[in-house]
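DM from R.C. (forwarded with permission)

"hey, sorry to bug you on a friday — could you get me a structure for this? deadline for the figure draft is monday and I only need the backbone to look sensible"
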Amino acid sequence: MVAAPIFGYLGDRFNRKIILSCGIFFWSAVTLFSSFITKEYYWLFVLSRVLVGIGESSYSSISPTIIGDLFTNNTRTMMLSVFYFAIPLGSGLGYILGSSAKDAAGDWHWALRVSPVLGMTAGTLILFFVPDPKRGSVDQQGGQLRTRTPWICDMKALAKNRSYVFSSLASSAVSFATGAFGMWIPIYLYRAQVVQKTVVPCTNEPCSSRDSLWSSSSLIFGAITCVTGLLGVLIGAATTRLCRQKTERADPLVCAVSMLGSAIFICLIFVVAKKSIVGAYFCIFIGETLLFLNWAITADILMHVVVPTRRATAVAFQSFTSHLLGDAGSPYLIGLISDALQKTYAKSVLWQFLSLGYALMVCPFVIVLGGMFFLATALFFLDDREKAEKQLSQLAKSPSSVKV
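My reply, with the result:
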C-alpha cells in the first residue's frame, strides 16, 4: 500500500518493464527467504511478509498502464480483463497450491516455496519478451507525447477528476469485501457445519478434524474464486461491449448494476448457510462472479479519464486507496465485531456462528455503497473523458499549452 505511490511515480517516468521485473524478483526472493526463517525470529518473518507488498505494488501499479498503451477501445477492455483475471485465478490457486504443498510435504513452509518459482519465471519472461510502448502511442495513433507534467500537477488533476475519485472509492468497496471473505468465509462455513451437526466442534485444544475441514473449505473456496474470476471478467467484458452500443456511460453503469446484484447474493449467504452448505456455496459463486465483473472495467474507466503520462500514478493511488479503505483493515474489523458479539454467549456454538455472520453482513452494505459510487461515476464519466482527450491533445502539441 505504501510502496504503490512510489512505483506510480517511477512508472510514469522510467522504463516500466525493468521496474516491473525488479519488483517481481524482489517479491519472489523475499517470499522464498521467509520460508526458511525459524520461529525464534518471528519478527523477521513478519517483516519479510511486509516486504512482499513492495513487489506486489510494482506489478499492480505499472502493468495496466503497459496494456493501456498497447491496446485501445474494446480490445483494451478484453486485454485488461485477461490481466485482471489473474487476480482471482492467482488467489484461488494460492489456496489450492498452498494447501496441497503443505499437505504433501507435511510442513506449511513449503506453501511459501511454490510461488517464488512462478514469480521468477514471470519476471524473466517480462524482462525479455514484454515491450515497453511509448506512453500514449496508441491514443495518438503511433505518435509520441513530448511533455510530462510535474508530479504535483498530476495529483491536483487526479483530485479534480470526479470519475477517478468515485471509481477509486468503489474499488475500495470491492477490496473491502474480497479481503474479508478471503480471511473469514472458510471459518464461517466450518462453523455452519458445526451448527448443522455434520462435524464435531473442537475445543481450544489442537483439533486435526477442524484443520482438515478448514483446509477442505479453503480448497473449495479457492476453486470457486478461480471459476468466478474467469466468468466475472469474461461476462464483464462482453456485457460492456454490448452496452456500449446503447449508451456511452456503459462502463460505470455495468459496474454499478453488478455491485448491487452482488450485494443481494452475498446477503443470502448468511441466510442459507445455517441449513445448507451447498446453498451457501451457490450464493458465494453468484455473488463473487458479479463482484469480480467490474475489476477490468474499473481499470478501463481510468484509462478513459486519465491521460497516459499520469496513468501509473493514477493506478498506484487507486491501489493505495483500495488497500487503505479496503482489505488492509476489513479482516480485522470483521474479527473485532465478531469477538465483541461473542462476549454475550461465548460458549455457544450457535452464537459463534451467528456472530461471525452478523459481522460479515457489513460487507454487503459496503458493496451497496460501492454501487452508489459507480452510479456517481456514471454522472461525470463523459465530461471527464472529454477533458482527458483535450489534455492529451495539448500534451501532444507543446509544453506551453498544457493545463492541469
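R.C.: lifesaver. Residues 208-243 form the longest helix (36 residues).
me: no worries. Residues 192 and 198 are 9 Å apart (CA to CA).
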